[in-house]
Design brief:
three-stranded antiparallel beta sheet; mainly beta; about 100 residues
């Protein structure tokens, strides 16, 4: 994304201007809408930025794929993976596997 105008719903993405609403830019957009996601400030074990709405796999043991999946969301002023895991405590042993929108 290069430029965004929230008031007029215009956006420039990879040199192409869109003026019919932001939703056209998102492959899985429903009802011509999409949500800008908030960055958690953390990266997963592959160095990818973790955003609100991502689904991550948290590993106890990566070699045996021993772990579980959680969605990332803002809860009580902190980014959480599920209801009990502060993202700052698990990001280094997690991997992004999708989003809640897919």
């Amino acid at each position: 994304m290069e430029w965004i105008d929230f008031k007029n719903k215009q956006i420039t993405f990879n040199g192409v201007a869109f003026e019919m609403g932001f939703g056209e830019l998102v492959e899985h957009a429903k009802e011509n809408q999409f949500k800008l996601l908030q960055y958690s400030g953390y990266k997963d074990m592959d160095g990818k930025e973790i955003y609100d709405g991502h689904i991550i796999r948290i590993y106890d043991d990566e070699d045996s794929d021993d772990g579980w999946n959680e969605d990332v969301s803002m809860h009580m002023g902190a980014f959480m993976a599920g209801d009990e895991n502060f993202i700052g405590n698990v990001h280094f042993r997690s991997r992004i596997i999708g989003t809640i929108f897919d």
